[in-house]
């Protein structure tokens, strides 16, 4: 045993090389010694695993380098806490960022394996619902790309978002089993385990003359174990860690119970602990108020904070330096309980006084708000919160008293304002407001588009904004151009590189150079040819999965996103029905052939959203079987929307539907993906659409409908949808057809409640915006008819969307909030 050895002096492993012959040998090496399979019996999955292990080795070299550098510099680290990471597949991402794509393809070909075949077998990691989770995944990639030392923290759900199947046009939810073949990307870190408590009681230890000390004695405990996935940035320059927590029992088996013959009871604890991280809550933009959800939130927050503090102290830092070394970003309110957990750890475990702990806490946290929808603002019944987290409940009261005292005394707030600021909602059954907690516990609160941030100041956080006017700021969302241009659209990427050179690969804003080619007839032809090939690829997918033939020369008009009334798939479907009617009535006119494509999942408990899916499928069946509109109109709902499907659909779109009720979509990121890939947007002035118009130019986007202000006014004054519907022949006929069972002859009343909702309140302004939308669609037809002008516009979209790179968003977070 050599005792005096300095570990830093140990020889480093030889960095891997990227020669295809060497890579082929490495793949066979992993197949043999890592998986224990001979090449003659290896399944395609075995080859996939072996290939991922080789790619992973290449990442590890750089991961170790990154980690050493961050430790050596004692650098400030960013911690991104998110209950969701909608990652998708990782292999292409990693190969492309490492610059290994061609070499691996060649290596595999030399041993008779096709890269595209095994890449298609990689499971799509859907540990998120939609935009919020995908944003977290884009941010992880961008933080690595711009060299910010960062950890993502979340939950390793055994079952991610459900798999969607259609049964006679109805959504059916099946469990997703992304871990069925193991997960070669991750490293289990048994040594990074923490105890997480729930319930129990708080003991007060009064030391003579000194401040009382509180000790939480939880009634239940589970273990959180870390699983690490390395996230490699563009060109492999920096690698960060995505650390996901899995719940394990303290005692896997209660031997006493087992020996006494209670074999099932002996496993109860184990099952209960593991249930904690079994499934992702499938609701998007609605708070899930169940106890298991609060348990999930506290579980991952507590594990993450214990881990963060351990790392901070292990580096030799003082607790007082926490805000200088640690920046914690809360992705929505789901991790808001972290604020109280950090207070508990600082006060009860590390013996800081309350004021010092509060100062450190609020300088460490920042919070991103994602929605203004009242039904999505999380709050927990006080009795539930108190039963599960008794010490945290005490701390909530202490913090609340401190804030309210300050608001009353120093700022002259009225009782009404105080009731809005309070951490406790007293208006009905008493509830803990997680939005207010996240706001009060953070030094920065950001919205995700300019419009959303402005509305936040006027609505949900109006009173807190008055109390802390310097805190709210905007960080408009972005998307990573690696996944959403370079990987999903290799043909367009090559064309751009051949035309303007490779600078845009490192700085998406350099796409601007394409502007000069928007009116170049030769370039337009090439741009159109790429779009055409991408559409053929999507048509092949639809033919093989659904048996429907699509004509790639028709306009591909696409709306893909979660199904939600505010996103207004219903507006699109009703307009499709009206168009169907028009084509049949006026067959002599020059109709633009269109394919209407939809995809998206509905929350299993969201009745109207599921009905909208059924309506899309019923309308599709009737239209697709009507010879009168053959070749002019097709409607397709592709099942099981996820990141991998988006990667095929986005590059194939001519028209991108971003038609939410103004004021209700915080930002959107789907809108950005499409425009970047050369689709024209038809959209409302909502979320980031507003800034997209500013960037691409108003002549290159089709904007229609009411503004957020107008929606607010109409709601306040009283909207009379019946009058609106009756004054539009097109709309009333379309609604009459839907309501009378034209598309549902087997159950004519199926959609009457959907249509009644439009007549009675039309909360989402489907009727109110219908005429403007229908007119905008005919404007789109006219644009399409002028092919040269159409492609000039779409080229300008690609050229001017570089600002929406998540690299820009992350740089802004870092400059204004994290300062890492
Ligand atoms: C980008 C993306 C979203 C978000 O789409 P929006 O149109 O912004 O709602 C949702 N799901 C998946 C799979 C995505 O890739």
Give a brief outline of the structure.
The protein is an alpha/beta fold and 820 residues long. Pyridoxal-5'-phosphate (PLP) binds at residues 86, 130-131, 134, 561-562, 642-643, 646, 668-670, 673.
Q: Tally of extended strands?
A: 24
What is the count of distinct domains? 3
- Termini separation comes to 40 Å
Task: Return the CATH topology of the largest domain.
Answer: Rossmann fold
CATH architecture of the largest domain: 3-Layer(aba) Sandwich
**Spatial shape:** globular
Report the β-strand fraction as a percent range: 15-25%
- Determine and state the CATH class of the largest domain: Alpha Beta
Bound molecules: pyridoxal-5'-phosphate
CATH superfamily of the largest domain: Glycogen Phosphorylase B
User: What is the tally of helical segments?
Assistant: 33
Low-confidence stretches: none
Using the CA coordinates, give the radius of gyration.
28 Å
Helicity level: 40-55%
Give the neighbour order of strands across the main sheet.
Answer: 7-10-11-4-1-12-13-17-18
Largest sheet at a glance?
9 strands, mixed
Structural class: alpha/beta
The averaged pLDDT comes out at: 95
Please name the defining characteristics of this protein.
820 residues, alpha/beta, Rossmann fold, 9-stranded mixed beta sheet, 33 helices, 24 strands, globular, binds pyridoxal-5'-phosphate, EC 2.4.1.1, allosteric enzyme
Protein described:
Pfam families: Phosphorylase. Its EC number is 2.4.1.1. The two termini are 40 Å apart. The relative contact order is 0.09. Strands 7-10-11-4-1-12-13-17-18 form a nine-stranded mixed β-sheet, with helices on both faces. Strands 21-20-19-22-23-24 form a six-stranded parallel β-sheet, with helices on both faces. Strands 14-16-15 form a three-stranded antiparallel β-sheet. The chain has three domains: 15-73 and 90-122, no CATH class; 74-89 and 124-476 and 812-818, 3-Layer(aba) Sandwich (Rossmann fold), CATH 3.40.50.2000; 554-798, Glycogen Phosphorylase B (Rossmann fold, 3-Layer(aba) Sandwich), CATH 3.40.50.2000. It has 820 residues and is an alpha/beta fold. It is 48% helix and 15% strand. Helix 13 packs across helix 14, helix 22 (569-585) runs parallel beside helix 23 and helix 22 crosses helix 29. Bound molecules: pyridoxal-5'-phosphate.
């Amino acid at each position: 045993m050599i005792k005096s050895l300095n570990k830093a002096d140990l020889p480093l492993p030889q960095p891997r090389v990227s020669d295809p012959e060497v890579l082929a040998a490495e793949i066979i090496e992993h197949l043999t010694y890592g998986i224990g399979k001979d090449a003659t019996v290896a399944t395609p999955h075995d080859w996939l695993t072996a290939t991922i292990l080789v790619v992973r080795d290449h990442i590890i070299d750089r991961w170790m380098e990154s980690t050493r550098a961050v430790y050596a510099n004692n650098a400030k680290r960013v911690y991104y806490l998110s209950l969701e990471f909608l990652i998708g597949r990782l292999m292409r991402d990693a190969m492309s960022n490492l610059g290994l794509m061609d070499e691996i393809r060649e290596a595999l070909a030399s041993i008779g394996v096709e890269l595209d075949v095994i890449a298609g077998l990689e499971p799509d990691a859907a540990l998120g619902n939609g935009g919020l989770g995908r944003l977290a995944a884009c941010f992880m990639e961008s933080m690595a790309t711009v060299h910010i030392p960062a950890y993502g923290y979340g939950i390793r759900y055994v079952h991610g978002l459900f798999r969607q199947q259609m049964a006679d046009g109805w959504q059916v939810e099946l469990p997703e089993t992304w871990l069925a073949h193991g997960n070669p990307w991750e490293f289990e870190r048994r040594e990074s385990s923490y105890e997480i408590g729930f319930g129990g009681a708080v003991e007060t230890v009064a030391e003579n003359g000194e401040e009382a000390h509180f000790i939480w004695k939880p009634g239940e405990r589970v273990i959180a174990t870390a699983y690490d996935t390395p996230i490699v940035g563009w060109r492999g320059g920096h690698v960060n860690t995505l650390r996901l927590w899995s719940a394990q029992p303290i005692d896997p088996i209660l031997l006493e119970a087992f020996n006494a013959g209670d074999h099932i009871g002996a496993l109860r604890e184990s099952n209960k602990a593991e249930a904690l991280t079994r499934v992702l809550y499938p609701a998007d933009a609605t708070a899930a108020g169940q106890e298991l959800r609060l348990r999930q939130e506290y579980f991952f927050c507590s594990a993450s904070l214990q881990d963060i503090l351990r790392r901070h102290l292990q580096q030799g830092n003082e607790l007082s330096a926490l805000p200088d070394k640690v920046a914690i970003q809360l992705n929505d309110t789901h991790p808001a309980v972290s604020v109280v957990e950090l207070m508990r750890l600082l006060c009860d475990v590390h013996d800081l006084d309350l004021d010092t702990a509060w100062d450190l806490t609020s300088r460490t946290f920042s919070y991103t708000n994602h929605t203004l929808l009242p039904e999505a603002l999380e709050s927990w019944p006080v009795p539930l919160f108190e039963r599960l987290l008794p010490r945290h409940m005490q701390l909530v009261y202490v913090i609340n008293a401190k804030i309210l005292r300050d608001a009353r005394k120093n700022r002259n707030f009225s009782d009404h304002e105080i009731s809005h600021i309070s951490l406790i909602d007293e208006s009905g059954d008493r509830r803990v407001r997680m939005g207010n907690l996240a706001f009060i516990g953070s030094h920065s609160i950001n919205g995700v588009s300019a419009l959303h941030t402005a509305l936040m100041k006027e609505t949900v956080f109006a009173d807190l904004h008055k109390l802390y006017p310097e805190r709210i700021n905007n960080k408009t969302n972005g998307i990573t151009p690696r996944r959403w241009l370079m990987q999903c659209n290799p043909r367009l990427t090559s064309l751009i590189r051949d035309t303007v050179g490779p600078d845009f690969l490192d700085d998406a804003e350099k796409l601007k150079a394409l502007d000069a080619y928007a009116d170049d007839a030769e370039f337009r032809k090439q741009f159109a040819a790429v779009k055409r090939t991408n559409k053929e690829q999507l048509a092949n997918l639809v033919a093989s999965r659904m048996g429907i033939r699509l004509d790639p020369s028709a306009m591909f008009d696409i709306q893909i996103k979660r199904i939600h009334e505010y996103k207004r798939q219903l507006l699109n479907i009703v307009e499709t029905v009206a168009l169907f009617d028009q084509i049949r009535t006026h067959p002599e006119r020059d109709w633009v052939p269109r394919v209407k494509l939809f995809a998206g999942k509905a929350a299993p408990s969201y009745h109207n959203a599921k009905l909208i899916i059924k309506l899309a499928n019923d309308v599709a069946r009737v239209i697709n079987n009507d010879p009168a509109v053959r070749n002019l109109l097709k409607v397709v709902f592709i099942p099981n929307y996820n990141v991998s499907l988006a990667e095929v659909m986005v590059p194939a779109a001519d028209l991108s539907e971003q038609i939410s009720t103004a004021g209700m979509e915080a930002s959107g990121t789907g809108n950005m993906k499409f425009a970047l890939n050369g689709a024209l947007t038809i959209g409302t002035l909502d979320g980031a659409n507003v800034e997209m118009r500013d960037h691409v130019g108003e002549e290159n986007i089709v904007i229609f409908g009411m503004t957020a202000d107008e929606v607010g006014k109409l709601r306040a004054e009283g909207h009379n949808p019946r009058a609106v519907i009756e004054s539009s022949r097109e709309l009333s006929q379309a609604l009459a057809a839907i309501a009378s069972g034209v598309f549902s002859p087997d159950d004519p009343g199926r959609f009457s409640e959907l249509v009644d909702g439009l007549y009675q309140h039309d909360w989402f302004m489907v009727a109110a915006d219908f005429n403007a939308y229908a007119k905008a669609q005919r404007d789109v037809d006219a644009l399409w008819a002028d092919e040269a002008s159409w492609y000039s516009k779409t080229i300008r979209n690609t050229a001017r969307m570089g600002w929406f790179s998540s690299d820009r968003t992350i740089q802004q977070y870092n400059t204004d909030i994290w300062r890492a």
